[in-house]
Design brief:
Helix 10 crosses helix 12 and helix 13 packs across helix 15. This protein has 4 domains: 126 residues, Rossmann fold (3-Layer(aba) Sandwich); 165 residues, 3-Layer(aba) Sandwich (Rossmann fold), CATH 3.40.50; 69 residues, Helicase, Ruva Protein, domain 3 (Orthogonal Bundle); 45 residues, Orthogonal Bundle (Arc Repressor Mutant, subunit A), CATH 1.10.10. It is elongated. By secondary structure, it is α/β, with parallel strands linked by helices. The chain has 19 helices and 16 strands. Bound molecules: adenosine-5'-triphosphate and magnesium ion. Adenosine-5'-triphosphate binds next to helix 7 and helix 15.
Amino acid sequence: MADFPNKLLPKLLIVEDDPGLQAQLKWAYEDFEVVVAGDRASALTALRAEEPAVVTLDLGLPPDPDGTSEGFAVLDAIMALKPDTKVVVASGHGARESALTAIAKGAYDFYQKPIDIEALGLIVRRALHLQRLEGENRALASKSDEGNRVLGGLITAAPEMVKVARTIERVANTNVSVMLLGASGTGKELLARGLHDASDRAQGNFVAINCAAIPENLLESELFGHEKGAFTGAVKTTEGKIELADGGTLFLDEVGDIPLALQVKLLRFLQERTIERIGGRRSIAVDTRIVCATHQDLETMIGEGRFREDLFYRLAEIVVKIPSLAERPGDSALLAKAFLARFAREMNPQVKGFAPDALASIDAWGWPGNVRELENRVKRAVIMADGKLVNAEDLDLEAGDRDEAPLNLKAAREQADRKVIRHALARSEGNISSTARLLGISRPTLYDLLKQYGIAT
Ligand SMILES: Nc1ncnc2c1ncn2[C@@H]1O[C@H](COP(=O)(O)OP(=O)(O)OP(=O)(O)O)[C@@H](O)[C@H]1O
Ligand SMILES: [Mg+2]
């Protein structure tokens, strides 16, 4: 047992029968609460009592210190009792064969003795990271399963996007204004709705207005409403979107397109929380939560005097950057499958899935139009498909990668490396050994590359 267990630290269980190694390992993890066990029984007692996030497991334990039977028995028991535990198996006996067996039994990774404390530490810390991410993913998934639909059916397996979803969940029940920044089709509106649904305003209206789609001269009336007779054509008193969102959420889409004069009026509303309809004299109090989105670079617009800085700070109490689809490794295939299932059900039930060439082309494509483009391509492909499987041709993705010309050959190589590594990591769920195997390189080489390219795992 650690001498002064710190309850805030994550727990690491070290199963190791060699007292010398026990002592050495025990002090190697300052950022963990370390628990040590020397045999199967005490390992399982510790598992039940401490529920460690990560376990390092020596396979050769008494009464079979030269074999692997006890170690594998512990691994089986852990996987049966608490399958989300990340077990890093360390052994010197028949390394390769044991490694494969261990991974097949559900171990997270394998480490060959003699132990290099630093390298093992890296694996353990990454295992913890993954364990936490998976936990968060599960929490998100179970919430949407509950019909609670916290984030409006958001589909993702990418840590970058899970982080976005978590931020949105966290701020949902506050009244802070949220600005969603992301390229076209990244899911800004989906997240805005998700935020509303997750908030205590969910019973109120979610009112969306696309500021770019409405002619300038009509936008003011759309937002603020007008009294009967306020202008030619104002035949009856009409509430504006802001008023309609009273008690709910107002989503200002393409907020960068609001003309300057109207920006002033919007700012006044945000400061005073009251509006006056056009042609009206009464000021009406409105309690609404503002979420806005834009694909424009507002900071540049501020610099050029086209967007008011004071309005920006009112709108952007929290800024959430939504990664493009290309920046979410693994998500394009995941989303494609979900869209295929939906559209097949709705429009062409004979379609059952993707042909391998289709999945490969989905993976290779740059998705400049993000999720919206993916959704549209899959929809069209499902409609067009003749057989049971959608192929690359149906998706119209044969032309290959259309990425822009890189700076130079070095940059191009780096870009390609990064992409391939991230995809391999995503495919092997962050497991270093299997990523290295997929890439046909050694683990040390992979570690070097991860460090060189600053890829977080
Ligand atoms: N992570 C996701 N999971 C499931 N569906 C998604 C996801 N992201 C986006 N979508 C779907 O993709 C489409 C585009 O998303 P959305 O309209 O929210 O994007 P946007 O950023 O507002 O795009 P635009 O800039 O074109 O208005 C929608 O049909 C949305 O439901
Ligand atoms: Mg949108």
